[in-house]
Structures
1.
Amino acid sequence: MFELEIDRVIATAHRLRGYDGACCNLHGHNYKITAVLRAEKLDEIGIAVDFKKLKAELDALLNPYDHACLNDLPDFARANPTSENIARTLYRKLAARMNDGNVRVRAVRVSESDSSRATYFEDEDDGDGAGI
């Protein structure tokens, strides 16, 4: 089994609806997004998934978020743009683009600071958590 990770950074603004504290006000984060994929086998030249393709797919998903107010985007019309909800949304969108029978998204982690992060994953097939 192979595990691959990429990191991307986006700058966004958001406010947390219904939050009792300063985060209910508009504020920003430089989010670090980490995508973890797993593959059972390599192709004929020894690649599980081309990092160039993975970066392009994740960048396409992140482009509408970068330098935007997340509350104004359809993805967060009903769900608060928390790190948890961002991670789940990106996981599901990336899985729809990348899962192919050999390669599958294992987890997506969203770090809103050096010390605060949320990880979303849907499978616990081997019981080791999210692989992050």
Note: The radius of gyration is 16 Å.
2.
Amino acid sequence: MINILVDDNKIEISGHANSNSPGHDLVCCAVTTIIYSCNAWFKEEDINFKEEPKIPRITLTIKNINQENQNLICLVAKQLKYISEAYPKYVKYDKNRKI
């Protein structure tokens, strides 16, 4: 199962969906695509993107909280929430913030 934790300045994703065999897991692909796209949207100086493949875990921490970055983190959080609602057997979404 993929676990997603969202708070005011951080998104942490850990685990694997295991909805299909490796390389064919579309749920895992969707979550990964969202978080990698998120990394590309932010300015490099505004975030810390840490990937730990052996765990597996990806943590995206916002270093510069401003309105634009708040809007981006909210957008990403909503996308991840929608995936968890569509595939609750494979994705668990926990939030410490209201989106």
Note: The first strand starts at residue 2 and ends at 7.
